[in-house]
Design goal:
Blueprint: E1 15-16, H1 35-47, E2 53-58, E3 68-72, E4 75-81, E5 87-91, E6 106-107, E7 110-112, E8 119-120, E9 133-135, E10 139-143, H2 145-148, E11 166-174, H3 178-185, H4 191-194, E12 199-206, E13 218-227, E14 230-242, E15 245-253, E16 259-269, E17 275-285, H5 292-297, H6 299-329
Antiparallel strand pairs: 1-14, 2-10, 3-4, 4-5, 6-7, 7-8, 9-10, 11-17, 12-13, 13-14, 14-15, 15-16, 16-17
Length: 335
């Protein structure tokens, strides 16, 4: 795919679609989207090690004066920053009489239980044992060995990200399991059909064929819609470095090197016994254009827009994942 000019890059990132076709007249992709290919890529992703690490949220959501509470794999967890600003994490249930630590304040790096004043500085105390935690600068991770059941890793497998990037993190929740979220991302063929407001002219230029996973990459040529017939064409690669993560990396075109990381974190079950899964998606955008420095400076204004765009896509994709789980759980899934 050649998206650049003779100098290797377009003067402007936009292109004009000269042969735009209506949604219903675009080329069908159902024959190419072979269930066996998607299922095979999913199975290999599930076999890759995670080291029992789970993404719990955005780094910037962890403040100095209050904890960040989550439920991961049915376990209440709580995170906060200690006196040095380092993240700490552990069970969200006070070991004294079971108070919800999510409602307790943080004072000078110490979490103080609001029921009886039991103070936790992040180290083992009074039956409370911390969990390993990792802040990669964009996302927060915790390690739950009892939930994961794998050989633990000292740190999570964090995808390579570009430097000097604009970052934004979106979180959504659906009634499904992590594998349904990952399967959605390992089906790039649905993009222009299911998300016509964002993607057009999508072609899957390469997909895994073997079972050894040696070439487990989906290569996609696609144009992002801007307005009317104005689009931004790129080539992107989708890979699954772990059982709950899919990474899209732009390899050619505007923003080459930028990544979108989609992480699926199991939460537990709802009051009807159905699984709930959080999607934590990190957009890490970069560009070597001179004006991109201004975009980074305007990050506080741009992040809500990026999150809104991700949210629109995930409203559809979580519906896809939820439908997949519903069919699987009742023995009706045809894939």
């Amino acid at each position: 795919m050649n998206t650049g000019s003779a100098g290797g890059r377009r003067r402007l990132p936009l292109s004009l679609r000269r042969r735009a076709v209506p949604w219903h007249r675009q080329r069908p992709t159902w024959r190419e989207a072979r269930p066996a290919v998607i299922a095979g890529a999913l199975k290999r992703a599930q076999a890759r090690p995670s080291g029992n690490w789970y993404v719990v949220g955005a780094s910037r959501d962890l403040h100095a004066d209050r904890p960040l509470a989550r439920t991961v794999a049915g376990r209440e967890v709580v995170l906060w920053r200690d006196a040095r600003g380092r993240p700490v994490a552990g069970p969200g249930i006070c070991p004294h009489l079971g108070a919800p630590l999510r409602d307790s304040p943080v004072r000078c790096g110490t979490l103080v239980c609001h029921w009886h004043g039991l103070a936790l500085d992040g180290g083992p105390f009074a039956g409370w044992e911390p969990f390993p935690v990792h802040d990669d600068g964009v996302l927060l991770w915790i390690r739950l060995d009892a939930a994961g059941g794998e050989a633990p890793l000292d740190a999570p497998v964090v995808p390579v990200r570009p430097d000097r990037a604009l970052t934004a993190v979106y979180t959504g929740v659906g009634t499904c399991e992590p594998e349904d979220v990952v399967a959605n991302r390992l089906d790039p063929w649905h993009g222009a059909w299911f998300h016509p407001y964002s993607f057009v002219d999508l072609t899957v230029a390469g997909a895994p064929e073997g079972s050894d996973g040696g070439g487990d990459t989906f290569t996609v040529d696609v144009s992002f819609k801007v307005a009317g017939r104005l689009v931004v064409p790129v080539r992107a690669e989708f890979t699954a470095p772990g059982p709950r993560t899919v990474v899209m990396r732009i390899t050619e075109g505007e923003g080459a090197g930028s990544v979108v990381e989609s992480h699926a974190t199991p939460l537990g079950t709802d009051d009807r016994g159905r699984p709930r899964t959080a999607v934590v998606e990190a957009v890490v955008a970069a560009s070597d254009r001179p004006g991109f420095a201004l975009a980074r400076g305007a990050a506080p204004l741009l992040r809500p827009l990026v999150r809104a765009a991700a949210g629109r896509l995930w409203r559809d994709d979580l519906a896809y994942a939820e439908r997949r789980w519903s069919l699987r759980s009742t023995g009706r899934f045809p894939g």
